[in-house]
User: Fold this.
Amino acid sequence: MHIHILGICGTFMGGVAALAREAGHKVTGCDAGVYPPMSDQLRALGIELIEGFGADQMGLKPDVWVIGNVVSRARLPDGTPKFPLMEAILESGQPYVSGPQWLLENVLQGRHVLAVAGTHGKTTTTSMLAWVLEQAGLAPGFLVGGVPMNFGVSARLGAPTLPASRGSLPPEGAGSPWGGPAANRGASARPGGGAPLFVIEADEYDTAFFDKRSKFVHYRPRTAILNNLEFDHADIFDNLAAIERQFHHLVRTVPASGRVVVNGLEEALTRVLHQGCWSEVRSFGAAVSDFTAEGEPHAFDVLHQGKKVGRVEWDISGVHNQLNALATIAAAEHVGVAPEAAAAALSSFQSVKRRMEKRGTVNGITVYDDFAHHPTAIRTTVDGLRRQLQPGQRILAVFEPRSNTMKLGTMKSQLPWSLEQADLAFCHAGGLDWDAKEALAPMGARAEVGADVDTLVRQVVAAARPGDQLLCMSNGGFGGIHARLLAALAQPTP
Assistant:
C-alpha cells in the first residue's frame, strides 16, 4: 500500500509514517517548515518529504491519503486555499482517513493498547512505560510524541506476539474507591488474552478537520493512564469541563477487564471518574493512593498501599517525573510486570529528546532544550532544574509562547508565576497578539522581551555568566536558538 501523509512532520504523524514504513508500506508525505528531530528521523527511514501542500502532489496517486490535524479548509487573505492538496483530494473523491483512524485499523487492532493521557507528561510517561515493558522482555510497540533516548526512534511496531515476561506477576490487589465490576479483581492473569503490547501517547487534541473528537478516542486501550488534567488548547476547548468530557469518552472505551491509572492529586480527574467508570482503577500520587513515593525525585522508594515494593534511583529530576514513574509502575503491573522490576527498569531510563536535553556547555554556561510551553509545565521544569543546582547557580529561562493556547494569550497572566524559580527570563514576543512585556511586568527587571531570536540571543549572552543554566523552552524549533546561543557564547568577549 502507498500512503501519502499530509502534515507528516508533526510528532504524531511522523510516528505513524515510521510505523507504516516498518510494516512494509510505501510512505511519502508533505509538510511546511519542517525541523528536527522528526525530519531527521523520517529521512533516515528513506521517507520522501515534499515541502508544502501543492495540488501537484495528486500525481503521486497513493492508495490512501492520511490527513494530519494541521490541515484545514482555511483560505488565505486572497481567497485561495491554504491547503490546495486537500481541496484537490476532496474534489477527486479519492479515499482519505485521519492519522488516528489509520493507526487503529492498521496497527492497534488485536493488540493490548496502553494509552497515556494528560495535559502534561504524556511523552515522558509513554517513554518510561515502553522502556519498562522492554526491560521486562515484552518487546512492546510504541508511538511517542518525541524521541526516547533509550530507543532512538519515536515509534516501532514491536513483537507481533507477546513474548514470555521476565518479570513476575504481582499479587492480588485491593479494591478501588471508584468501584466498577473489576475493582476487586487483582492482576492475577495477564489481561487482553496475551495480546502483543502497544504503548501510545494519547493526545486530547482533535483528530482532523473532519473529525473533531479527541485523538485518543480512536485507540481503545485496555490500560489507560490519566496523568493530570487542566485547561489547555484554548483554540478548540471552551473550558476545562469540555476537556473533562473528552477524557470521560476515553474512560468509556476501556473494557471491564482493563485498568484506569489515575493521579489521585487531580480534582479534575476525580470529576471525570465520577461520571462513570467500568474498569479497575489504580491511583497514584496522593497520600491515600495505591501507589506513592517516599524520598526525593531522584531517589525514592515506591510504596503500594503503604508497603515498599521497589526503589527508583535515576538521573531524572522533578516531582512531576516522580509522579510519572508511579503512573508507569501502576500501568506496567496491569500487564504482568511486578512493581519491583518496573522500578529497577526506570533506574536506566534516559529521558526523551527535548525534555531537559543538555545541548552543550561553553565557558561554564550550560544550554538545555525543553518542550515545556504551558505555564504549569514551565514551572515544573524550572523547579526540577532548580533542585539540581548548587547555591548561587542561576537559571536563565528563555521561552517562546508558541502553542495555540499561548498565542491566544489565554494564560499570559500565569507566566510570572510559572517563572518564579528563574533568576532571569527572556521571552520571544514575535508573532504574539498580546503584550508580552506587560504580561511579564510583575517580574520587573528579571524579565526581558525580544521581538526576534537574534535579539533574544544578544540579550541572553549579555546577561549570562559562568555557572549559569540557560533553559530554552518551546514546543517548536525556536529558530535554532540552542545552537545560536552556544555559538555566541563561544565568541571572545570584546
Observations:
- The domain at 110-346 is CATH 3.40.1190.10 (UDP-N-acetylmuramoyl-L-alanine:D-glutamate ligase).
